[in-house]
Amino acid sequence: MSEPFSTQVSDRICSHMNEDRGDALLIYAQTFGSLTHATSAQMLSIDPEGMNLSVQVNNATLPVRIQFDHVLKNSEDAHDTLIAMVGQGRSQG
């Protein structure tokens, strides 16, 4: 059974994304944050309704909130949703 969505789950997801999935974070910022000129992004937090990113655009750092298309149930749902969003972003780009 997947663990419920908690601060610890958010911290673990953010750590993983920032260390290993910078390309995905950039896709989220460019596609779902409508920041097509973004050059990098960092995940600050994630909760059942969305994620908060810090995005570099033209030498400026911008806070970006990206809402999910549904409320996440748990960490497994977060994983599946984040992967689906990368696929959607790649197909739109």
UniProtKB/TrEMBL annotation:
Pfam families: DUF2470. It comes from the Bacteria. Residues 10-85 form the DUF2470 domain. InterPro entries: DUF2470, Haem_oxidase_HugZ-like_sf. This is DUF2470 domain-containing protein.
